[in-house]
Amino acid sequence: MSPTIQATSRFQGFPISPTIGPKSQLAVETKNWTQALGLQEVRVNMLLKLLAVPALSMKAKPVFKLLSASAALFTIALLMVLFRTPRVSARSDFDRDQDEVKARIGLSIAPVPLNFDHRDRRLVGLGSYIVNAHADCNGCHSQGPATEYIGPGNPYLLSPPNGPYTGMQEVNPATYLGGGRDFGPFGSKGELPHLYSRNLTPDKIGRPAGGRTFEEFLTILRTGKDYDQVHPNCSGAPDGNCLLPPFNGDVLQVMPWPVHQHMTDEDIRAIYEYLSAIPCIDTDIPGAPVLRNDCK
Length: 296
Fold this sequence. Notes:
Layout: E1 5-6, E2 9-11, E3 14-16, E4 19-20, H1 33-50, H2 55-60, H3 62-82, H4 93-109, H5 121-134, H6 137-140, H7 145-148, H8 208-211, H9 214-223, H10 257-260, H11 265-277
Antiparallel strand pairs: 1-4, 2-3
């Protein structure tokens, strides 16, 4: 009968309980390359012990030493292929499962109808989770607290008999992510009387923020670049449409892009996919043509 050896050990907190013999198997879950390479070393050390030649035969003749060593090296190389290091994916199963959970939650809490035509449903759901359950984008990219919710669905109000809140939140679809919240006066001397949050809804062809490509959207969240140049730095006296130093007129002000720039490309892609799936809103505020959107 072929010998069978039972061994139980641990490597970096992971249990290793291999049975090495004719039907040997060494299975262990790994989370990164460091752990995987460490396991390979454990396997080699165990195999070396199994392949150790009894001292008597090793002392017999030099030729047997050479043959035994060559056979051992060949066997080790063969078994290293058979027991090769597990493949390690960039994302663990746990991460993927968490994204699936977030996507389901995102789809369930989206406050407006979604258009899934030619869109990745999972990404739309994940984007909704980030926008609605995490970043509170509508808190800034609507026209303010007074119109963010519909009366009975406003969680900031009292419940009957002292107020109208029914206990069920209801976001106002007429202003949802359509921009228009005024953060002015703004600037080192209040030179901007109005500073409106931008309209994030898609245009008639489905591009968010009034027609931005994904590359442009990615650049905005990574660098804060203001493609519309709504408030460039003043070249002369302030005229109500320019910013004085030290503020940088080339980047979006108030918008928390310095925080969002640390998000992964996939998360930003999910936000973009979600924003492309929500209804278009044409926000018409006098003196703010940047909020207008071509919805037809």
